[in-house]
Structures are given as C-alpha cells and as structure tokens.
C-alpha cells in the first residue's frame, strides 16, 4: 500500500522539525521494502495568511481529504493574531475531519531523566475528548450599560460523544495490552455534565470488565501524576481536563521538545492529523536548535495509526538510543547539537528488527 501523507510544516520551528521527520520517513522506506509513501507539502501558514488573508484556500479541506494522514508542524506567528491561526486552520481540520480523539503518550524515554528525579518507569497515554465538552465555544454575556456583569460558558456532553471516546479508549487498551483505565472526573461538583460523563463511561466500562476501571477527581489525579506517575496505563479525560493533564504529563517526561500527539478519526472516514504538542517557538525559530524529537515521534504515532506499529517502534528505539548516548542533543535537553544533527543521529540508528 502506498500511503499518501499531507505535510503542513506551518510557521517558526515547524518547518525545521518537519523536515527532519520527513527525512526519517524516507530512511524507513529505504530500509523497509514494504513501506511506500508519498508526501505533498502545503504551505498554509502565517505567510500565506499575510498574502491571502486566509489560512488556507477555500477548498483546503477538500484537498486534504484525499490523504491517508496529515503531518502538521506548528502554527503561530507574532504578525498574525493567535486566534486566527488556530480557528482558521487547526480547529477546522479537527472538526471537519471528526478527529474526536486527542492521543498523547506520556512516556519517559530511556536516556531521559524524570525532572522529579523519581526512579520509576512512566508509560501511559492520555486519551482526551477532542470535539465537544467544555470547548464548544458557546455561551453568553450580560451587560449593564457598557459594562460586563456576567458571563456564561456552556459545556455540552453528548451520549454519542462520550461513548465514542470511551470506546476508543478501551479499544486502544485492548490493542496495546493495557490493563487499567483511569477516568478523570469532577462529578462531585459538576453534577450535570460530569455525572453524565461518568455514567456513560461506566456503561462502556461494564462491557470491558477484563480491563480494570478506576475514577479520580481531576484535582487529586493531578497530584497523583506527580506522586505516582508509574501507576497509570490509560487516562480518559474530557476536552478541558485532558488539555490540562496532558501538559502536566509532558512536563513529567522531558518537556515540549519531546511530546507528540495525534488528533485521530478512529472510523477512518477522514484523515487523522499528527503534530508535536509544542508551538512555533518564535524565540528560537531560525536558529536551527529546535528539538525535532517531538515531531519525529508524532510521525511515529502516524505510522502506528496507519497500521505500522513496527515502524513506530523502530523510530522510538532510535530516539532512545540517541538519548542514551547523550552525545547529540539539542539545548532544551542539555546538549549543544542542532536540529539537523539530531535528525541525522536518529536516522543513523534506524533499523528494523
Ligand atoms: P511554544 O511551544 O512555541 O514554546 C514554548 C517554549 O518551549 C519556548 O521557550 C520554546 O522555545 C520552547 N520549545 C517549544 N518547542 C521546542 C522544541 N521543539 N525544541 C526546543 N524548545 C522548544 O509555545 P508558545 O511560545 O506559547 O507559543 C508560540 C506560538 O506557537 C504562538 O503563536 C502559539 O499560538 C503557537 N502554538 C501553536 C500550537 C500548534 O500549532 N498546535 C500549539 C501551541 C502554541
Ligand atoms: Mg494545551
């Protein structure tokens, strides 16, 4: 099968790290005669916006639809307001392509030290609802004359939405041999939405009795992330809770230069999109010192999603080898190597088992 991959490098360090990820894909297709892919690059970024007053062409989504997956760098430029780049590019893709799962591995790679200096293996995934909940952008304001007096922000949780994400989480657990699911909730206080969330999640849990189920209030869970991160396998969370927990999670395993993510349409009706957690980092853009590992790991998640877990594993092994040698690292993780040098080091380690 020939995989068709749309590449959107974006702004700032996005193109720098995306180039390294594409080099990794090229090398894989050299060493694995069964892996074919082609890429098409789309320069829909802030430069494009400054020329055309839009982040992508009118038929942009139509063009992307034909691909098997999207590899996204990062978007954001000081000359363009952040809400424009986010609401006109990233969010339309997530919404239109029904990428209702946000998948974030929280794994302490070999060779990296937990910033809390704990000698424990950390290896779990956060599965975040990516399409509804607290982030539906609906609400209202009440004014007294010109003055804002009250604001309401609505949360909408649907049975179908909760079922979809819970079913994905259990499916993911089964496929990856994970034995426990942790539900992040706050049903003690948010007695309409979160009690409904718990109820539907627990209906799905009841159909998956071979996987242990536990539930924690989000505040306590945040503390456990720090105190005993080794005890989690899958953490299932709503849109807002998952957003916050995943940044906390990435901080306990090496930071933004490492953290990958996937925006997944599990039904395969539209392409899924893979991107590093970090943004366009204007403060280091153009210096050639961005860590490409988060983007390369995101490309690995993409291959896993496309059915090639073996290629995903090969990439992770190479990243870990480079980390363990500690010779070729970017400044964010204590080295003085360049983006390209780290990319090349990872490529030089790639081999199939
Ligand atoms: P950021 O993630 O771009 O940078 C935060 C800090 O982490 C900076 O000090 C940066 O130098 C560092 N950093 C990030 N990635 C790194 C890497 N690969 N290697 C080494 N250091 C790295 O977040 P910030 O500064 O809040 O946002 C900058 C721009 O990026 C904004 O326009 C924002 O809207 C956008 N952004 C875009 C995202 C996306 O495209 N999905 C996600 C987050 C932010
Ligand atoms: Mg976030």
From TrEMBL:
Its EC number is 1.1.1.83. It catalyses: (R)-malate + NAD(+) = pyruvate + CO2 + NADH. It holds the Pfam family Iso_dh. PROSITE patterns: IDH_IMDH. The keyword Cytoplasm does not apply. Its cofactor is Mn(2+); Mg(2+). InterPro entries: ICDH/IPMDH, IsoCit/isopropylmalate_DH_CS, IsoPropMal-DH-like_dom, TTC_DH. It comes from the Bacteria. It is an enzyme of class 1 (oxidoreductase). SUPFAM superfamilies: Isocitrate/Isopropylmalate dehydrogenase-like. Residues 4-346 form the Isopropylmalate dehydrogenase-like domain. Gene3D superfamilies: Isopropylmalate Dehydrogenase. The keyword Manganese applies. Keywords: Manganese, Metal-binding, NAD, Oxidoreductase. One of its GO terms (molecular function) is D-malate dehydrogenase (decarboxylating) (NAD+) activity. Belongs to the isocitrate and isopropylmalate dehydrogenases family. This is D-malate dehydrogenase (decarboxylating). It comes from Pseudogracilibacillus auburnensis.
